[in-house]
UniProtKB/TrEMBL annotation:
GO terms for molecular function: UDP-glucose 4-epimerase activity. It catalyses: UDP-alpha-D-glucose = UDP-alpha-D-galactose. One of its GO terms (biological process) is galactose catabolic process via UDP-galactose, Leloir pathway. InterPro entries: Epimerase_deHydtase, NAD(P)-bd_dom_sf, UDP_G4E. Residues 3-253 form the NAD-dependent epimerase/dehydratase domain. Its cofactor is NAD(+). The gene is galE. Its EC number is 5.1.3.2. Pathway: Carbohydrate metabolism; galactose metabolism. It comes from the Bacteria. This is UDP-glucose 4-epimerase. Keywords: Carbohydrate metabolism, Isomerase, NAD. Belongs to the NAD(P)-dependent epimerase/dehydratase family.
Length: 325
């Protein structure tokens, strides 16, 4: 098998490339480098610089490298930006996916893994979110992920492609400092950013119906997430008749909730900067609780997260210090 990893120079893509390579898979990466960093990729992995919107390039890459499976991570991922620029998000995330699926079908590739997100669920009022929980995304970004899943399944049925959609929960941490997320879009880097600026970390709302009043989330270590991709790729590769395994959509989380206050306490311990936090009003659209049921991933992929939240914060802090020293 040869796997093409789109978005392979990104934060998660580089972890996937590394985990799959270490497990003995042959991989190559495609990335337009709009947010990617080539140095993140392990040595020896070919990197094609180009876009998932470039159908001719995709056809050439799939043929030249005799690609037999695709892991598609390339996408824009900022919720706020997607609210301001919805057409761009639909064009790039969904247009890029449609172009890629056409190339995949044309090249006879029969295995496809898609990066989806817990953003597809929106704000459900349940203790544990299962894959059957109704989807109601609250941003154009989340919509592109949900519509992306529909497109992946439809193309899979039409062209005999086996597919897995992975709905990631809150990704954090790094397998090595140089692989860390350099963006400041998720809560852990946002808190590091505040501390580095000598500002108090903020909590948006402490009057939610949760044990300590702050929002509860399910954090997943990016190295565990990368292993989930490997498990998905292996599941697809193990199908004796490609195109007969159908589709699987699965949550990737730990199944354990951590409150924002608990996370900030942990960050204070790890960074040695336990200054008091600022409590600000709730932000519109924040769900009180979003925690995955991780049961289906265990049964269908044989995958369970192994790393805890402290390991996520410690590894993310090492990465932050490397990039922001
Ligand atoms: N980070 C998270 O918390 C999170 C959570 C849920 C889902 N996801 C999804 O995981 C995927 C990877 O996210 P990430 O955090 O690694 O983001 P990232 O921005 O670090 O990685 C995305 C990579 O894709 C590349 N890219 C973007 N558009 C492209 C295009 N049209 N053609 C080729 N390359 C393109 C970028 O240069 C970048 O290297 C995305 O699909 C994202 O929506 C991320």
């Amino acid at each position: 098998m040869t796997w093409l990893i789109t978005g392979g120079a990104g934060y998660i893509g580089a972890h996937v490339a590394r985990a799959m390579t270490e497990a003995g898979e042959r991989v190559l990466a495609l990335d337009d480098l709009s947010a990617g960093v080539p140095a993140r990729l392990p040595e020896g992995i070919p990197l094609v610089q180009g876009s998932s919107l470039d159908g001719e390039l995709l056809k050439r890459v799939l043929a030249e490298h005799a690609v037999t499976g695709v892991v598609h991570l390339a996408a824009r991922k900022q919720v706020g930006e997607s609210v301001a620029q919805p057409t761009r998000y639909y064009q790039e995330n969904l247009g890029g996916l449609a172009t890629l699926l056409d190339a995949v079908a044309g090249a006879g590739v029969r295995r496809f893994v898609f990066s989806s997100s817990a953003a597809v669920y929106g704000n459900p009022d349940v203790d544990l979110i299962t894959e059957d929980t109704p989807c109601a995304p609250m941003s154009p970004y989340g919509e592109t992920k949900l519509a992306g899943e529909w497109l992946v399944r439809a193309a899979g049925r039409a062209h005999g492609i086996d597919t897995v959609c992975l709905r990631y929960f809150n990704v954090a941490g790094a397998a090595a400092p140089e692989l860390a997320d350099t963006g400041v879009f998720n809560v852990v880097p946002m808190v590091f950013d505040r501390l580095t600026r000598d500002e108090a970390p903020r909590i948006f709302g402490d009057d939610y119906p949760t044990p300590d009043g702050t929002c509860v989330r399910d954090y997943i270590h990016v190295a565990d997430l990368a292993e989930a991709h490997l498990a998905a790729a292996r599941r697809l590769a193990s199908s004796e008749t490609p195109g007969s395994a159908g589709d699987l959509t699965v949550n990737i989380g730990r199944g354990e909730g951590v409150s924002v206050r608990e996370l900030l306490t942990l960050i204070g311990e790890v960074t040695g900067d336990g200054r008091p936090v600022l409590v600000e009003p709730r932000r519109p659209g924040d769900a009180p609780r979003a925690v995955a049921s991780a049961a289906l991933a265990a049964t269908e992929l044989g995958w369970t997260a192994r790393r805890g939240v402290r390991e996520m914060v410690e590894s993310a802090w090492q990465g932050w210090q490397l990039h922001h020293a």
